[in-house]
Amino acid sequence: MKSVNSFQDKDNRGILKRFRTSLLIAVPIVGLLFWSMPSALKLWTKTFGNSGLEAPYRYRFERSPESVTTKLGQEVSFYKERIRQDPSSGLNRALLSKTYLRMARATGETSWYLLAEQTAQESLAKLPFNNDGAIFALARVATAKHDFPSALKLIQQASQNEETLALQVTANLAMGNLPSTKQASDRLVAQNPSLNSFTLRALVGVSQGNDQAAMQDFQQALASEEPEETGSSVWARTGLGRLYFKRGKLDQAEKLYQEALRILPNYPPALLNSAELAIRRGQYQTAEKFYSQFFQLSTNSPSVYDHVIYRGMARVKELEGQSADATQWRNEAEARLRKDLTTFGHRRELARLLLERGRPQDLTEALTLMQAEVKVRRDAETMDTLAWSFSQLGRWPEAQTAMQAALRSGIRDPALFYRAGTIEQALGRSSQAAAFFKAAQETDPTFDDQARQALGLGVGLLGLN
Hints:
Layout: H1 10-25, H2 29-33, H3 38-47, H4 68-85, H5 90-107, H6 110-126, H7 132-144, H8 148-155, H9 162-174, H10 178-191, H11 195-207, H12 211-224, H13 230-246, H14 250-263, H15 268-280, H16 284-298, H17 306-319, H18 323-339, H19 341-344, H20 347-357, H21 360-373, H22 380-392, H23 396-407, H24 414-426, H25 430-443, H26 449-452
Helix pairs in contact: 4-5, 5-6, 5-7, 6-7, 7-8, 7-9, 8-9, 9-10, 9-11, 10-11, 11-12, 11-13, 12-13, 13-14, 13-15, 14-15, 15-16, 15-17, 16-17, 17-18, 18-20, 20-21, 20-22, 21-22, 22-23, 23-24, 24-25
């Protein structure tokens, strides 16, 4: 197995370049049209949009022929001009930083997050008091960097309102503070029963294993949506699609992802979760097309999702029996994760990649990463990854403790139940293991070896609201 440093060799760079070139050639022409041409939107709608999707889940507003990123670009130019005319304005910089964040949400590009952070800091330097907008922008950047404790500290400096509550929900959910999360989400919905607030509370319901409440909130969210809420509209549908995916209802998940992409072509979570779904179905060429569609957009501007693409391609090549190609893609994922480790806090994501590779030195480093990660993030996925780290090292009692923490919230996830079963099995607790394996099948009756091939490739929605 070559180290990531060997990826700098000229021959290996040539290999990866050929991989990328062949991947891009495979992209269907319609993918090249998605950003701004109305005809592409019509083609997507005719082919995929609303196909069998129930009326409550459909987007009922007319889509502007002008792309979201174009409109946001115009907004950026507007605030830049206002700053040029009034260089001392802290308020305009705060508004510009929030526009940068909306661009980051739409594209996933890291540069927009960094611009938002820099502009918000400049805003506070110009206007250090009564500048909630800049504080909120910095808090949202902190959530994108997975620095949830800092996000909570920041919003304590701001006025308590709906935006404050939304950030409290996101940060507390990631940190595993479920009582605080539930209280904040209920208050948020009571104050502002909107698309965004209902979706946030739906995610809380999912984390507690309350499917009925989550489904009801998702439905109320979509019933509450208004025009020009594009980001929240695709976020809600992708979240609902992921819930269906976790329950084995793949057709419904696919329709919701497709609807999100009809509203906002190239929305990163919907594209990457569609690739995950294709891998689960064994449709590897389809998965490659989804990855390549996003890859061509992020080639010139790195995104927070690049490592997901590289890991996904590694998994596809591995499943296709192309081990050399898989190694190259995994090395690329590792390089990107290590580069962004301090900036965007991808400790958990790097740990998962190392655990997949499974070398002795990788397993030790993965555990070290996760022991640092749980100091700032303790949601179910994080605790599950810690349990996986202990399992790979044969430290089964510690793995059991971590998995118990992962399941404490009540979350219903077949992958977590399955891992809990393997841990109990390794500890010789056969009846407990059987109970967990049964729970996995009851949660998702289609959860099988093929489903396990796609584990870890989806995109969660925390920090994206």
